[in-house]
Amino acid sequence: MAIDRYESTIETDFQKKLDYGGYLRLDEILNSQHPLSNPAHHDEMLFIIQHQTSELWMKLAVHELTAAVEHVKQDRLSPCFKILARVKQIQRMLFEQWAVLETLTPSEYAQFRGVFGQASGLQSFQNRMIEFLFGNKDPRMLAVFQHNAPVFEELQRLANTPSLYDEFLRHLARRGYEVPAERIERDWSEPYEAHPGVIAVFQRIYNHPEEYWDAYEMAEKLVDVEQQFALWRFRHVKTVERIIGFKMGSGGTSGVNFLRKGLEIRLFPELWDVRTEIGQ
Hints:
Elements: H1 20-24, H2 26-29, H3 44-73, H4 78-101, H5 106-110, H6 125-134, H7 149-159, H8 164-174, H9 181-184, H10 196-207, H11 213-244, H12 256-262, H13 269-273
């Protein structure tokens, strides 16, 4: 049986009005896929769209994490709970996207891999922004962005300012928690290193969540996003191994072996270490 869904109130005259495509600038977005293979390989479109959509999700993640940092700097933890819950879902979308790319077989990818030369996800400045906002700092990774002055300058700024975790520890110090001084004033361009004094702070919070609820909730939200980040990294490794095996990465890395090192990174180490101490 046919269902008539037409309603007389549906707007149809957009000669002088903003429509859906105009608001979203779909003319620009949908015309931004330009395969380089000649003749065009069918699967190159998948490869391009996979990475373009990832960058759109990363743009939102940067937007959200930047807002979270500002809230923490102003001692407002509550808005961060919603923000980090959203970031976790963005990360979930990025994780699930690998499933689409996994439909690309090694034989298919080999037919067009060479067309983009040394272009590589390693050069994703938004991914680097996310890493820096989370605190995974390594100034040496900035070298690949030297050709793009605005991006290079913004990454330098992020590399030399406190991460979200740094700001959380500074917030806790302002509230009277005994955060070690060397963790709230340091060289922000250096990667964060765990400190037993910070574990003690989180042990106090986790042993009495009802007393320190906002700090406890913030800590758990950070664990959420780090766990999701680790899952994304793992699936990235397995997807790359599945498609190119142990070939060199297009950007000059060792490929899978390089990506595997990322699995060992801990963004908020004391939030994991404290689990051994809770209840003691």
